[in-house]
Each structure stands twice: as C-alpha cells, then as structure tokens.
Amino acid sequence: MDHDEPMVQAKALVKRFGEFEAVRGIDVQVKRGEAFGFLGPNGAGKSSTMRMIATVSPRSDGDLKVLGMDPSVDGPKIRARLGVVPQQDNLDTELTVRQNLQVYGRYFGLSRAHVKEKAGELLEFAQLSDRENAEVEALSGGMKRRLTIARSLVNDPELLLLDEPTTGLDPQARHLLWDRLFRLKANGVTLIITTHYMDEAEQLCDRLVVMDNGRIVAEGSPSGLIAKYSTREVLELRFPPGEAAPDLSRFAERVEVLADRALLYTPQGEATLERVHAEGHRPVSSLVRRSSLEDVFLRLTGRSLVE
C-alpha cells in the first residue's frame, strides 16, 4: 500500500444484526502512525466497528478498506498484518506465559527459532520476563492484559486493534499499560482503541470519534473536542443537602444541575465563583477544574444509563 494511504478507510459503513442496525453509516479514516479512538457508551457500535476492521465480521453495507485492501476479498492477508487485543483475555490457561507467545506465533507460520527470540523480546516489553514459566492462572489481571497485548505483537503488526484495553484494571496497571502503548506508537505502530474511559482517550488518542447509537456524533483531537463542545473551565458548586440549587444560569454559558451539585461551564472559574459569592449565594463547597473529555462525552451522549 502507498505510505500516505490511510490504514483504515470506511465510507457509509453499516453493520446489521437482523433488523437491528448496530453501525449506521459511519465514515472513518485512520492515518498511519496515529493513535485513533472510538469513544462511546455501551451499545454505541464501537465493538461492531472494530470487528469489521479486524475482518472477523463482514460489513452489511458501505465501503471498507484496511491496509489498502478489501476485507471481504483479502481477509487472510489483512489478518496476517494485524494485531488484535480482544475485550476479554482469551489466553490458553494450560500453557505457561512463554508458551502462550510461542504457540500463537506458530499460527503465523513463523519459524521456531524466530518465535523463541520474539517471545523473549515481548516478555521484556511486557515486563513479564521473571514470570515466563508461570502458569497463566497465577497472573494478576494487569499481567494477563500485558501478556494478551504481547501476544498480539508476535507477528510485528502494522496496525494494532485494542478493544477496551484496561477495563477492570487498577490505576497502577492501567498506567503501566499506557506506557507500553506509548512505546508501540513511538515505534511506528498504528493504534485503534475503543474505550469508555475518558482519561484513557485523552491520554492515548491523537484523534477520536465519539459514537452514540451507531452513529458518529463528533470527531477531532481531545483538545479540539473540548474547545468545540465545552468551556475552558468548569465550576462545581455543592449546596446543603436537601436544599435546591438556586438559579445560576446568568453566571455561565451553560449550567447543569445534578442531584448533588451544579456544574457551571465558564472560561474563568475563579471569576465566576467570585460573582456567585458577590450575589449572596453560599455553596458548602466549590471546585474549579479544567474541562475534560468527560464533559464533552456527557454533553454529546447524555447522562442517562444505556443498558
């Protein structure tokens, strides 16, 4: 493929399951070397899109090219150059850590000698060298996740697909995983990540789309989306329990009243707080913070839970 050609290009991409349309005509372009994110609530269509890109689920309509090829024609060729990290770890629990890498490498037709050397490199990369002979069952959740990512790199993929890579991990394990992904990107691997963690998307993604109900509702860099859909700062005010928040609409561009606090979206949080105090309002606590991708996400997709 041409070096400037997108790694993934989708136009009017659709995925149907019977009468249900999970992905409803989306356009996506992923450039070589970038970390691209699909952000959205459960059921938004993220995983269905990833499965089409991974060439394990045929598209129902629209156009899709992965690595310059058509998945419906060149599925095996594409899969040979992909790395896939599924939402759930599917390691072989009857094999050791090292054996998981070596056996998987043989599926790609790689020689025993090459796979043995590659497994050593990947164990070091995943910080699992000291556990190479351990059984998979004995590993922590974070270690299993790192091993799953290491396994996906056995074939030196140009494109790595990660579906909810850090779900269920503690903060230390998440940060260690992020560090490994930064290193991969620095080495030229293109990453596509689905996540519902806003901080993860903000940390890892150069560019992302927000999906909701099978459609793309916004696209851009994390900072660009914050600039477009939110304000520079947010002032959070809490009032005494059982006391309704006063009308604060005149103090900010947008005010959101939640059960336990009011959010005032404003360019200058401290100046807005001074005005609130000057007019005699006395919240029991106040917090000025910078606007985040979470504010954008909740504005675009709503706060109600989608099951």
Automatic annotation (TrEMBL):
- How is the protein disposed in the membrane? Peripheral membrane protein
> What InterPro entries has UniProt attached to this entry?
AAA+_ATPase (IPR003593), ABC_transporter-like_ATP-bd (IPR003439), ABC_transporter-like_CS (IPR017871), ABC_transporter_ATP-binding (IPR050763), P-loop_NTPase (IPR027417)
**Origin: domain of life:** Bacteria
Which range is the signal sequence, renumbered to this chain? none
Q: Which GO terms describe its biological process?
A: response to antibiotic
Task: Report the subcellular localization.
Answer: Cell membrane
Report the main location listed first in the record.
membrane
By its UniProt entry, which SUPFAM superfamilies does this protein fall under?
Answer: P-loop containing nucleoside triphosphate hydrolases
**SMART domains tied to this protein:** AAA
For this entry, the protein name equals Lipooligosaccharide transport system ATP-binding protein
Q: Which organism is it from?
A: Amycolatopsis xylanica
Please spell out the taxonomic lineage of the organism that makes this protein: Bacteria, Bacillati, Actinomycetota, Actinomycetes, Pseudonocardiales
